[in-house]
């Protein structure tokens, strides 16, 4: 088997750095100028954990960008674990292949490519792997007024910047002096992760290599009229580009299934995703038009979600096409919650926002949402990411 023997999905251990993360997967920047984040997870009442998560701070080596995702597996851990390790690399590759294409199109292509990779993995497993996962992803992108990144110009990039979370993670981690492994629910670990188990997963997974949309309304976002000067910082072999202070921050969300993203804007919950469930009338019509049926809210009487990554045996009906939204962030935008349905089954969007709005530390906020789900007897695994936005300073 190309995975560890454990039935539980494994996400890459969370580490911490003061500021520079060097594109490393699941490394928190504790003094980041534009956002902070926290992650909490628990298997709940289930026997196994089939959720995975991932994030990259300063995604694609641009200060202030970020990638965040939750993957909720079913019928096994494999699809979710693979996505937690490699979805961000597929997105990065798609961005570099077509840097001027609309981001919703790039997200759509990424979802389809990942879906095809998972289907191929299932086929090559001789029936041993047949899992799927729902997904919610958020890409916080720094742009100019034309929706492009003209400030990049000919800024050099390095192999480390182009491949976040690569096999050089351990070496880079030691060089950066970060050293702290953060478990997801708030306590520090000793950082002693099994190298043999990690390398087995990495080698096996690496063999695979690497829509509908809407634009959310946004209040007018005041931006500085200061000159557009690009700053570049070279550190540890990578180049971090600091965009001009008059850049826009645009949040692109994409999801397949019932994992959800909710933005808190001036205390109000704004859902940025769409729940793809068999109980949804539009999704049920799509299923029946394709020759399938929905029984008791389940596709062909089996699966409760109508879109997912993987699930190759039902791909004719359960597609991987994401729903995407585009939202320009403004001063009223406080934080974003990404979570699987283990949270949303027991709390609505507005109540979730109100529960943690006054908690400035996103790790504490994510832990409180997790505790709420468990105390209200959710029957599923729970994974929660909270990203709290800051107003960027001019000298970030």
Description of the structure:
- The protein is α+β, with helices and mostly antiparallel strands and 396 residues long.
- The protein has a single domain (14-276, 324-389), classed as PPM-type phosphatase domain (Phosphatase 2c, domain 1), CATH 3.60.40.10.
- It is built from nine helices and 19 strands.
- The protein has helices at 78-97, 103-124, 159-162, 169-176, 195-206, 281-289, 341-344, 349-356, 362-375, and strands at residues 14-17, 27-29, 35-42, 51-57, 66-74, 132-143, 180-182, 212-215, 231-235, 238-242, 248-256, 260-265, 268-271, 294-295, 298-299, 309-310, 323-328, 333-339, 382-389.
- Strand 4 (51-57) and strand 5 (66-74) form a beta hairpin.
- Helix 1 packs across helix 2 (103-124).
- The longest helix has 22 residues, at 103-124.
- It comes from Macrolepiota fuliginosa MF-IS2.
- One of its GO terms (molecular function) is metal ion binding.
Topology record:
Elements: E1 14-17, E2 27-29, E3 35-42, E4 51-57, E5 66-74, H1 78-97, H2 103-124, E6 132-143, H3 159-162, H4 169-176, E7 180-182, H5 195-206, E8 212-215, E9 231-235, E10 238-242, E11 248-256, E12 260-265, E13 268-271, H6 281-289, E14 294-295, E15 298-299, E16 309-310, E17 323-328, E18 333-339, H7 341-344, H8 349-356, H9 362-375, E19 382-389
Parallel strand pairs: 1-2, 8-17
Antiparallel strand pairs: 1-7, 3-19, 4-5, 5-6, 6-11, 6-16, 9-10, 11-17, 12-13, 12-18, 14-15, 18-19
Helix pairs in contact: 1-2
